[in-house]
Amino acid sequence: MRYAETGVNLEIDLSRGSIEKEGTDSRLTELHLGGLGTNAKILWDRVPPEVDPFSPDNLLIFSAGLLAGTPAPGANRTIVSTFSPQTLLMAYSIMGGFWAPELKFAGYDKIIIRGKSPKLVYLWIHNDKVEIRDASHLKGKGCLETEELIKQELKEPKAQVATIGLAGENRVYFASIEQGRSSASRGGIGAVMGDKGLKAIAVRGTKDILVARPAEFMELCNGVLKYIQNRADNPIKGVPPILAGLGSPQEMTLHDEEWHTASFAWGNARHRRKDFWNKEIEGQWKEIQDKAVERLISCYNCPMKCGGIITHPKLQRYMMKCYSKLTYTMAAMSDLDFGFRIAGLAQEYGVDGYTTPQVMAFAIELYEAGILTDQDLPGFPSDNEERFFWLLEKIVRREGIGDVLANGVYWAAQKIG
Ligand code: SF4
Question: Model pTM greater than 0.85?
Answer without folding.
Answer: yes
